[in-house]
Amino acid sequence: MQHLLNIQSKIFPQANDDLGRLVAYWKFKNQKIVFTNGCFDILHRGHIDYLAKAADLGNVLVVGLNADASVSRLKGAGRPVQDQDGRALVLAALRFVSAVVLFDEDTPYQLIKAVQPDVLVKGSDYKTDDIVGADIVKAKGGSVQTIDFLEGYSTSGIIRRLLASSQDK
């Protein structure tokens, strides 16, 4: 039961005072804070590769997680496959994830403003200047990094294969 409580303590339903105190503590300890975000609907090898590489860019990794309503708006009907509580728990269980923070907006701009990370990370399908929150991070002297995705791994691809295999039966 203690392991589950430890995992749950890394989950924040929104940017709140508890998260603020944790971020202040990390900054006091001169920890380099890395931030990334996404839907992480079905956690797969590509996600693990991406998140591990993001975590390597600093001392703590904060993951902004799109809440269910946000995922539905971005990805369409039938998404998310897993609810936000399940997705948050799986992400928080990863050793190298320091905090998971849910956000309901279409972008994590306000969350990035609250966290004030030292490093902002997105996939290399984004141009650095087009990454939401890049202005916030650059204004404080931080960096914006992109990470290549692992070829052949995507949630949409997994869903397509599942649907195709269920239709074959």
Brief description of this entry?
With 169 residues, the protein is an alpha/beta fold. 43% of the residues lie in helices and 18% in strands. The longest helix is centred in the C-terminal third of the chain and has 13 residues, at 155-167.
Give a verbal description of the structure.
The chain has 169 residues and is an alpha/beta fold. It is 43% helix and 18% strand. It has one domain (2-167): Rossmann fold (3-Layer(aba) Sandwich). A six-stranded parallel β-sheet has the order 1-4-3-2-5-6, with helices on both faces. β5 (119-123), α7 (134-139) and β6 (143-147) form a beta-alpha-beta unit. The mean pLDDT is 92.
- At the fourth level of CATH, the homologous superfamily is HUPs
> Largest sheet, described in full?
6 strands, parallel
Spatial separation of the terminal alpha carbons: 40 Å
Helix/strand class: alpha/beta
- Structurally, the number of domains stands at 1
Please state the average pLDDT score. Answer: 92
What is the ordering of alpha helices and beta strands?
HEHEHEHHEHEHEH
Write the layout of secondary structure elements.
Elements: H1 2-8, E1 11-12, H2 17-28, E2 33-38, H3 45-55, E3 60-66, H4 68-75, H5 84-92, E4 99-103, H6 109-115, E5 119-123, H7 134-139, E6 143-147, H8 155-167
What key attributes describe this structure?
single chain, Rossmann fold, 6 strands, globular, six-stranded parallel beta sheet, 43% helix
